[in-house]
Specification:
The protein has 145 residues and is α+β, with helices and mostly antiparallel strands. The chain folds into two domains: 44 residues; 97 residues. Helices cover 46% and strands 19% of the residues. The chain has five helices and four strands, in the order αααββαββα. It has a four-stranded antiparallel sheet with strand order 1-2-4-3. A hairpin with a 5-residue loop joins strand 3 and strand 4. Helix 1 packs antiparallel against helix 2, helix 2 packs antiparallel against helix 5 and helix 3 crosses helix 4. The radius of gyration is 16 Å and the shape is globular. The protein starts with a helix and ends with a helix.
């Protein structure tokens, strides 16, 4: 779907009062600004989400999981091609995070997602990496608390 048509549809939903459309509009605008502010001689990385990969029946559960993961972030450390997040497993469990990874990799195939757990610690490590230019996308999806 061309960006203009997608944005038109999202704006109609925003005007209708859909709170999820407001969040989605903000993410689209950040992505649009990121792409348009690139230097002309620098190739734009392929950061394309498949918005239909998560069906309407699964979307509410996905949205709940991603919000729980965001609220579980206790620390974010930048690495060259992404971020390492320390998650509080009391806020979101290891199986729930793994379930989210299973969904996220379908809609964002450019991401590399890695989940690590260590013994009896109450936290786990989520590493999200991708091609050049992925950090602004991750910043928009997982803002610093």
């Amino acid at each position: 779907m061309p960006f203009a048509l997608l944005m038109t549809d999202v704006l109609k939903r925003v005007e209708a009062g859909d709170p999820k459309a407001v969040k989605f509009r903000n993410r689209l605008l950040r992505l649009f600004l990121f792409i348009t502010l690139q230097e002309p001689d620098v190739p734009v990385p392929v950061l394309a989400c498949n918005l239909k990969a998560i069906g309407p029946a699964e979307r509410p559960h996905y949205d709940e999981l991603v919000e729980r993961i965001r609220s579980a972030v206790r620390n974010r450390r930048a690495i060259s091609d992404g971020y390492v997040f320390k998650l509080d497993s009391k806020t979101v469990s290891l199986p729930e995070t793994a379930e989210w990874i299973g969904m996220e990799r379908l809609c964002c195939p450019f991401l590399t997602l890695q989940l690590s757990a260590f013994g009896d610690r109450t936290d786990c490590i989520l590493t999200l990496t991708g091609p050049e230019g992925v950090k602004p996308f991750l910043d928009a999806e997982f803002p610093v608390p």
